[in-house]
Amino acid sequence: MKAVIFDLDGVITDTAEYHFLAWKHIADQIHIPFDRSFNESLKGISREKSLETILVHGGAAAKYSKAEKQALMFQKNQHYQTLISKLTPKDLLPGISRLLCELKNENIKIALASSSRNAPKILERLEIIDDFHAVVDPTALAKGKPEPDIFLTAALLLGVSPAECAAIEDAEAGIAAIKSAGMFAVGVGHERSMHAADLMVGQTCDLSLDLLNEKWKQHSF
Ligand code: B16
Ligand code: MG
């Protein structure tokens, strides 16, 4: 294992909750039912795809013009940015700071594969941006998760082959992307959405370099 590639929302910090609050505000405004269970289906997917999914769910796919959709996404992002402006290093999920230290000590490369355009800002707020050797720009990709592009680009930027990478995700779309990139997939969360992962942990505090190495060795590509 030469590199570990991280998802951001739901793995490094709990901004998944902020995405939920910001989308819920929009959904309420346009009278579309929106709860935490439906929000699960938006994890890891782009802003555009998320809005489309909400509109289809509410039977309103054809109701809004392109300009109106842009305005809804703008409004959601404004709300989201207000929420993330309050992030501090205390908002790192448990065990992540320790894991980053363990990886750095062993000279294992670290990259970020987040679908979020707000990712660099969030890494700065959490004061961990200098730990990352590469941060993929999701706007430069042809296809988002569950396609493998974002993880393959991370490996390319790090100068390692996909088979030498482990990647950590909290979303089903993310695990699918890691697997189709030919990488070792680590899922954080509930079994239901993580069944395709090579290693599954309930919470981020269960992650450690020792555990990754141990499961990596047992795994055959
Ligand atoms: P933004 P990840 C994803 O981040 C989120 O899980 C997803 O809910 C969000 O819609 C997407 O980023 C885009 O975020 O609106 O900030 O560009 O899980 O890939 O780190
Ligand atoms: Mg995520």
UniProtKB/TrEMBL annotation:
Catalysed transformations (reactions): beta-D-glucose 1-phosphate = beta-D-glucose 6-phosphate
Name this protein carries in UniProt: Beta-phosphoglucomutase
NCBIfam families: bPGM, HAD-SF-IA-v3, PGMB-YQAB-SF
Keywords: Carbohydrate metabolism, Cytoplasm, Isomerase, Magnesium, Metal-binding, Phosphoprotein
Residues the entry annotates as binding Mg(2+): 7, 9, 169-170
Pfam families, A to Z: Hydrolase
Cofactor list: Mg(2+)
Site (Important for catalytic activity and assists the phosphoryl transfer reaction to Asp8 by balancing charge and orienting the reacting groups): 114, 145
GO molecular function: beta-phosphoglucomutase activity; magnesium ion binding
Catalytic residue positions: 7, 9
Organism: Bacillus nakamurai
Signal peptide start-end: none
Any GO BP annotation: carbohydrate metabolic process
Cofactor binding note of this UniProt entry: Binds 2 magnesium ions per subunit.
Origin: domain of life: Bacteria
Keyword Cytoplasm belongs to the record: yes
Chief localization: cytoplasm
Gene Ontology CC: one annotated term: cytoplasm
Residues holding substrate: 7-9, 23, 42-47, 50, 76, 114-118, 145
InterPro entries for the chain: B-phosphoglucomutase_hydrolase, Beta-PGM, HAD-like_sf, HAD-SF_hydro_IA, HAD_sf, PGP-like_dom2
EC number, UniProt record: 5.4.2.6
Family as reported in the entry's similarity comment: Belongs to the HAD-like hydrolase superfamily. CbbY/CbbZ/Gph/YieH family.
Location within or outside the cell: Cytoplasm
